[in-house]
């Protein structure tokens, strides 16, 4: 749980200057991140507060048609 929160803080800082996980283009890194965050719920790991860049990124990638499959 602590490692997940620590990573999400780092990811939020990274996303402050990048649209997606690996830069300006959607990639397998975004798919992996989306799945990891989605699995936080069944693992009962809460999303830390104040991660506005992660929230923006998650909203964008989870709205893609492929994310709804």
Give the secondary structure arrangement, pairings included.
Elements: H1 2-15, H2 28-38, H3 52-62
Biggest sheet features:
none
Considering DSSP H and I runs of 4 or more, what fraction of the residues is helical? 40-55%
Low-confidence stretches: none
State the end-to-end distance.
Answer: 28 Å
Count all strands and give the number.
0
Give the SSE string: HHH
Q: Number of helical segments? A: 3
Strand content: under 5%
Rg, Å, rounded = 11 Å
Which secondary-structure class do the elements indicate?
Answer: mainly alpha
Choose one word for the global shape.
globular
How would you state the average pLDDT, rounded? 96
């Amino acid at each position: 749980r602590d490692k997940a929160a620590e990573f999400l803080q780092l990811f939020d800082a990274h996303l402050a200057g990048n649209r997606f996980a690996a830069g300006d283009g959607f990639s397998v890194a975004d798919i992996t991140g989306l799945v990891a965050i989605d699995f936080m719920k069944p693992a009962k790991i809460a999303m830390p507060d104040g991660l506005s860049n992660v929230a923006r990124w998650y909203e964008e990638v989870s709205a893609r048609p492929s994310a709804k499959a």
